[in-house]
Specification:
The complex is a heterodimer. By secondary structure, chain A is an all-alpha fold. Chain A has one domain (2-139, 186-308). Chain A is built from twelve helices and no strands. Chain B is mainly α. Chain B contains four helices and no strands. Chain B has helices at residues 11-46, 64-69, 73-101, 105-129. In chain B, α3 (73-101) runs antiparallel to α4 (105-129). Classes of the chains: A mainly alpha, B mainly alpha. The interface between A and B is large, with 75 and 74 residues.
Chain lengths: 310, 130
């Protein structure tokens, strides 16, 4: 009984931290389960993927309601991230756990460095603001169809990528128009090949390490494809669900998901993410960020030790 | 099928599609979390230690209804987790139908290809198992 509560609490802590710092839960859940509870890394990755899908679905609902995410761009890129996740999900079973631990140590180090270099996060953002590089914080799915959202509404003119849902052109102009059709107001998507490649990499990364992959997708969309950061963050979150599903079904059908662990952790992450989004304005995020960086550095060292077999 | 209501602009179609997807995700997430919560409560009541037990119930969709009726925690947890995993697939289906309704062949094709990737994942996993 105590173990279930501890897993629930651990998931909630990961959800709170992830929400406050604009990261998905996976970067925290995998080390928590492996280093904290002694689970095999592959099993921890499988549990983490379930949590990633939960937070993606919950957040994507809110971002779509508010018309912050670019559905067309997200669906185009998720074809490639899902394909990457399929490949990653398959090779995950061919790679030694020590190698996975090494890759995870590298990922955590990357996240820690980007957190040190990023500007101070403002308090209680309605959506991840400009200046963040990670995944958007998960939020409770608000009731749909005109009811109150969970947070302050975003000015529609500033936030909504307004595309037109009408018949696509055909013929020679079709290729040129596709980028325009997946663009939004005030920006035109370019560099699609770079986005596709980045999405494949993010998908492989997600499947191997149980993370959402926003740390890859958001910079690619924002820096290489000209997508505003807020839209890129929301769109990345939308893509995470199907990306994680593509590999999660492999873990599921290969009996790598333990429901007695995945259930409490996913529930905890869901509740914790909601708590985090409400605590954001009461917490000194700068102190929290440095504390988190310290945790990441410690975790990276532990993962590296595991990878090297020391 | 998501179609533009009569007398309204085409952007309303995009809004309708996004609202339909959001509604699906909201309902699906809450339902999945309710199932998982029920499973966790039953797990707590049973006193089972999830970290030390060895007889983890394997995923067997055919067994879930019987486990639900018998109030076994594994049934609720598997039902919730399965719903979590397939929810994004439902989102892609709804989006694909919306694009089809709008005669946007390219994005409808993208939706079908995304579903194909998931089907290949399932097939690959089953192949690896066999």
């Amino acid at each position: 009984m105590i173990a279930s509560l501890v897993l629930l609490g651990g998931g909630a802590a990961a959800g709170v931290f992830g929400s406050l710092l604009g990261l998905g839960g996976g970067i925290l859940i995998v080390p928590l389960l492996t280093l904290g509870f002694g689970l095999p890394l592959r099993e921890a990755v499988a549990v983490s993927l379930v949590s990633v899908i939960v937070t993606s679905s919950a957040s994507a609902a809110v971002y779509l309601q508010r018309h912050v995410a670019n559905l067309r761009l997200g669906m185009t890129l998720e074809l490639f991230s899902a394909a990457g996740a399929l490949v990653g999900g398959l090779i995950a079973f061919l790679i030694a756990e020590r190698v996975l631990a090494g890759l995870f140590a590298a990922l955590i180090t990357w996240v820690a460095v980007s957190m040190v270099r990023r500007p101070d996060p403002p308090r209680a953002p309605a959506v991840p603001p400009d200046g963040t590089a990670g995944e958007p914080e998960p939020v409770w799915p608000a009731p749909v169809a005109g009811s109150a959202a969970t947070r302050e509404p975003i000015a529609p003119a500033a936030a909504a990528p307004r595309y037109r849902l009408d018949a696509a052109p055909s013929g020679p102009a079709a290729d040129a128009s596709f980028a325009a059709r997946i663009s939004g107001p005030g920006y035109r998507v370019h560099g699609l090949p770079a986005g596709m490649l980045g999405s494949v990499f993010a998908g492989v990364n997600s499947a191997l390490l149980g993370v959402g992959g926003g740390i890859v997708k958001v910079p690619v969309m924002h820096l290489l494809m000209g997508v505003p950061l807020r839209t890129a963050t929301a769109t990345s979150n939308l893509m995470m669900g199907i990306t994680a599903t593509s590999s999660a079904v492999i873990y599921l059908l290969r009996d790598e998901i333990d429901p007695f662990v995945a259930g409490p952790v996913a529930l905890g992450v869901f509740v914790g993410a909601s708590m985090g989004s409400r605590l954001a304005h009461r917490v000194d995020l700068q102190i929290l960020r440095w504390l988190f960086v310290a945790v990441l550095v410690y975790t990276a060292v532990q993962m590296a030790v595991r990878a090297l077999g020391l | 099928m998501i179609a533009a209501p009569a007398g309204r602009g085409r952007n309303d179609s995009a809004d309708a599609l996004e609202t339909a997807i959001a509604r699906l995700l909201v309902v699906g997430t809450w339902l999945a979390m309710a199932l998982v919560l029920a499973g966790v409560l039953l797990l707590l009541a049973s006193g089972v230690d999830p970290l030390t037990r060895r007889d983890v119930p394997a995923f067997d969709p055919a067994r879930i209804p019987a486990d639900l009726v018998a109030l076994r925690p594994g049934g609720f947890l598997w039902a919730g987790i399965a719903l979590i995993v397939i929810l994004p697939v439902g989102r892609v289906v709804v989006a694909g139908l919306g694009f089809l309704g709008a005669r946007d062949g390219r994005l409808a094709l993208v939706s079908i290809l995304v579903l194909l990737v998931v089907i290949v994942s399932v097939a690959a996993a089953l192949g690896l198992e066999g």
